[in-house]
Amino acid sequence: MVRIDMKFNGKHITSSQQLEREMKRSFEKTIEQGIRRAAGPGVRVKKTRNGFEAEGSPEQIERMKRRLR
Description:
This protein is an alpha+beta fold. It has one domain (6-68). The protein is built from two helices and four strands. It is elongated, with a radius of gyration of 17 Å.
């Protein structure tokens, strides 16, 4: 068995399962930040169990979709 000893985002990692959890958490956080940044003013973004939902005018939603591409 190989022992891992490293730091990832300031956290001390000692197992592959812990590294997997921290990487997944980091990726999800980055994606959520990107979605919220693309929303812009006037668009409300909610995180639900089915994903993200955006509320706003059709023009604002279209602008958000273009920013996400």
